[in-house]
Amino acid sequence: APVAMLSASASINENALEFFRGKHVRIYPHHDSAGFNAAELWTEQLTDVAASVDFYQFRKFRGTKDLADLNRLLVEDARYVRFNGEVLP
Question: Pick from 3, 7, 12: which is nearest to 45 by CA?
Fold first, then answer.
């Protein structure tokens, strides 16, 4: 299930970490220093409970800094639906 962290300055509440146990977690941070710092913090928090943690880097796509930008790009230019043979998330 999707989980939204609506601020790069927020951390995951310790009581919520157990809900991630054994899950594969993909983080979609904003493409800026605050977003990368948040992704590192959340990865550190999740490392002991999640089965895996990774994060998606929007730098692959010109003009995208977050998931909303990527969705806009996919609507405007269908050639980006596949990138390096990978179906985009």
Answer: 12
